[in-house]
Amino acid sequence: MLTPRMKSQPQYPPLEWDRSGRQHIVFVSAEDPALARHLFEDPPEGDLTLIHVSEDAESNASGWQVSLPPGSTRRVTRRLDSALQKLHESLDQARMGARLYLVGSEDIIWQASKVADRFGMGSDAVRRHRLGTLARPVYCVHCRTTTRGVRTNVADCSGCGRALFVRDHFSRHQGAYMGFQVDAEKPGELPPIEEVYR
Description:
Largest sheet: 5 strands, parallel
Structural class: alpha/beta
Order of helices and strands: EHEHEHEHEEEEEE
């Protein structure tokens, strides 16, 4: 059972256009045809770019690509690192009044947020909408490694191998939940391990 939300945990309101924007960049890594139709049936004014991480990058069959309005720019890739590079390029060419929309798992949303941070995009210019898995990125406070895709309350750090207790405290700076060694006082003594983030 999930514990009550901590103040540090991000809120993800329903995704809507910021119609005050002059340019709109949509970064998507999860499928939701209904959301795509909802957004694109009444697109905002200004340039619209879709950066889509899709396993079937050559196909136009995803809900996002099918619904994309004519005249929009489409940048599709299979790999997250390539999509983040495309986001970097798009933000590098963006004009004043650009708005960014991030859609996908929490881990990917916050990896993309770090790219936006490099360009000084404030919180009022970025909208986030979580879709897909609840698996968490976990930042090890001991070795400073982020372990991705964590579904359990205790997980091995991918850097130092420590058994980490996955806290509910979220660091926007790290884009991850904090993980602390769970058996520091009594090595090898672990609480029951449960899958809680599906």
